[in-house]
TrEMBL record:
GO function terms (MF aspect): cyclic-di-GMP binding
Span of domain PilZ: 28-111
Upper lineage: Bacteria, Pseudomonadati, Pseudomonadota, Alphaproteobacteria, Hyphomicrobiales
Pfam families linked: PilZ
Domain of life: Bacteria
UniProt protein name: PilZ domain-containing protein
Amino acid sequence: MSLISRLLDHLRSGDMPEERQAARASRPVLEVEIGGYTHRARDWSAGGACIEGFAEAIAIGNILSGRLSWANDRRKLAFTAEVMRLDPGGAVALRWLDLPLAFQQEMEAHIG
């Protein structure tokens, strides 16, 4: 098997090294509002989040802004994030660029 064939097999297997720098959580539920639509985060950290059900046309590297909150929390806090990954089915991985410090601290406290 050639080197290229082995590399392609490795990539297809999904056996890729973890690139996340922060531990992830899925509870409490994080809601991310962008363009008037609220999306639930599949997982989140103080470094970013993966949201599902995103239908807007975007590309990796796009900068998005909106509001976020914990589910059933009336607070809606502004954020800015960069699109890092687009998954089939509408999942979008975001890296926070601007996140309120108090909210970031809450995230870190939930993760432990």
